[in-house]
């Protein structure tokens, strides 16, 4: 309310930074605070509408957020190294964690070695988990990301 103007206003602020302002008629104690044209009710209704839409938009945004993969371990297969996952494969001298995750987005798992990416829906029978420190080589395309090692595959599960 701006007392100098003698008018009330309703302000609705949403978390997305949008601001809706609407002037309201003066408050009158004689009328019990209600206005003749229902401006306060209209303001409350508008606020409720925008709040409901905000919740809908937040749910939509959440649905479109990328699912973060979960690291499940460092694996080796003795008989045929590099065949822990049998789906798609990507070899790249500039491989990054993100590239592999995107390449394998339609699978349940992906595995990384410094310049190789493997996709699959299940881990092959006969694989052995080894200590995480054995998967400490850097990705070819990002020297700050660890991407398995020679004959060692860092395996991630794509969360749903």
Task: Explain what this protein looks like in three dimensions.
- This protein is of the alpha+beta class and 160 residues long.
- 21% of the residues lie in helices and 29% in strands.
- It has 2 helices and 10 strands.
- A hairpin with a 2-residue loop joins β8 and β9 (142-146).
Short summary:
With 160 residues, the chain is an alpha+beta fold. The chain is built from two helices and ten strands, in the order E-E-H-E-E-H-E-E-E-E-E-E. The protein is elongated, with a radius of gyration of 28 Å.
Secondary-structure element pattern, one letter each: EEHEEHEEEEEE
Number of strands: 10
The percent of residues in helical segments reads 10-25%
What radius of gyration results from the CA coordinates? Answer: 28 Å
Measured distance between first and last alpha carbons:
48 Å
Give unreliable regions as ranges: none
Main sheet specs: 6 strands, antiparallel
**Tally of individual helices:** 2
> Average pLDDT value?
80
């Amino acid at each position: 309310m701006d007392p100098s103007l003698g008018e009330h206003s309703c302000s609705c602020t949403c978390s997305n930074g949008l601001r809706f302002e609407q002037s309201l008629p003066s408050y009158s104690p004689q009328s019990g605070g209600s206005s003749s044209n229902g401006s306060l009710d209209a303001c409350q209704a508008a606020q409720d509408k925008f709040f409901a839409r905000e919740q809908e938009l937040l749910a939509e945004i959440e649905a479109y957020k990328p699912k973060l993969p979960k690291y499940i371990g460092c694996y080796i297969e003795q008989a045929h190294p590099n065949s822990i996952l049998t789906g798609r494969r990507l070899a790249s001298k500039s491989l990054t964690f993100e590239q592999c995750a995107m390449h394998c987005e339609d699978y349940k798992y992906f595995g990384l070695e410094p310049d190789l990416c493997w996709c699959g829906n299940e881990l092959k029978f006969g694989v052995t988990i080894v200590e995480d420190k054995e998967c400490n080589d850097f990705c070819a395309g990002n020297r700050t990301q660890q991407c398995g090692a020679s004959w060692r595959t860092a395996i991630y599960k794509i969360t749903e």
